[in-house]
Automatic annotation (TrEMBL):
PANTHER family: ABC TRANSPORTER I FAMILY MEMBER 17, PHOSPHATE IMPORT ATP-BINDING PROTEIN PSTB 2. CDD domains: ABC_PstB_phosphate_transporter. Residues 21-262 form the ABC transporter domain. It comes from the Bacteria. This is Phosphate ABC transporter ATP-binding protein PstB. GO terms for molecular function: ATP binding. It comes from Lacticaseibacillus pabuli. The gene is pstB.
């Protein structure tokens, strides 16, 4: 079935909602191909927003643009606004490394460095000028606690991160992102490569993390979106056709395509 791309419902957040970031008419091109067609979305602070939609609908491209990761793809061009702390960060004079420190990213496949658990966490802060054993010890502990991994690894901090299970490695990657003290965590299908027990651990971790961080997650797993997110955006053919509170998206969506997608009629 072909859906109208003009049928769009984007819920406006209440005027007292605090935004962590928002986009306005964000478009992403790969060469001549426009992969994201003018998406304007708000992201409320200390909430989890899930981005769902069929394969190729532009979710990951949109997500990667939010911390300027798409800049690393030579053919890619991003237009429109990415508003963060009163600034449009989609401009050439912005320090992209600082953007990526404040808006961290966790990828689909756990990608720890071939280093110890301890060094995985201290690596980037060290490069940003953090120093001192006590500071690092504390940073390692708070980051691992934040990612709900401390109890499992506190006796083997100097062992290789690669010896951890997939789920533990992913929580280490979350700890690594937290160690940079970001405001926002972008997560691209962070549990899709994990078994159900590890997935549950990562989901529990995310629910704890939102007390301190704003999370934007791409997921193919609709139960996961329903379980953990406060807001959901449904992407289709490069557009966000519907954005609303998660319970509304999954019970009373306003747009036909959303209804059919969450009902499992296509995917
Ligand atoms: N590095 C790239 N170079 C060129 N085209 C790309 C690149 N990455 C994505 N695309 C194209 O952009 C469009 C959106 O892809 P994207 O991966 O963002 O979608 P998605 O919704 O995240 O899909 P999936 O759920 O399968 O990950 C697709 O047409 C894809 O082929």
């Amino acid at each position: 079935m072909a859906y109208s791309l003009d049928d769009i419902y984007i819920k406006e957040l209440p005027s007292d909602a605090e935004l962590a970031m928002s986009t306005k008419d964000l478009r992403v091109f790969y060469g001549d191909h426009e992969a994201v067609h003018g998406v304007s979305l708000p992201f409320e602070r200390f909430k989890i927003t899930a981005l769902i939609g069929p394969s190729g609908s532009g979710k990951s491209t949109f997500l990667r643009s939010l911390n300027r990761m798409n800049d690393t793809i030579p053919s890619s061009k991003v237009t429109g606004e990415i508003n963060y702390r009163g600034l449009d960060i989609n401009t050439s004079d912005i320090d992209v490394f600082e953007v990526r420190r404040r808006i961290g990213m966790v990828f689909q496949r756990p990608n720890p460095f071939a280093k110890s658990i301890y060094d995985n966490i201290t690596f980037a802060p060290r490069r940003f000028g953090v120093s001192g054993k006590e500071t690092f010890d504390e940073l390692v502990e708070t980051s691992l606690r934040g990612a709900a991994l401390w109890d499992e690894v506190k006796d083997k901090l100097h062992k290789s991160a690669l010896a951890l299970s997939g789920g533990q490695q992913q929580r280490l990657c979350i700890a690594r992102a937290i160690a940079m003290k970001p405001d926002i965590l972008l997560m691209d299908e962070p549990a899709s490569a994990l078994d159900p027990i590890s997935t549950a651990a990562v989901e529990d971790t995310m629910l704890k993390l939102k007390e301190q961080y704003t999370i934007i997650i791409v997921t193919h797993n609709m139960q996961q979106a329903a379980r953990i997110s406060d807001y959901t955006g449904f992407f289709y053919n490069g557009k966000c056709l519907e954005f609303d509170e998660t319970r509304k998206i999954f019970t009373r969506p306003k747009i036909q395509a959303t209804n059919d997608y969450v009902g499992g009629h296509f995917g």
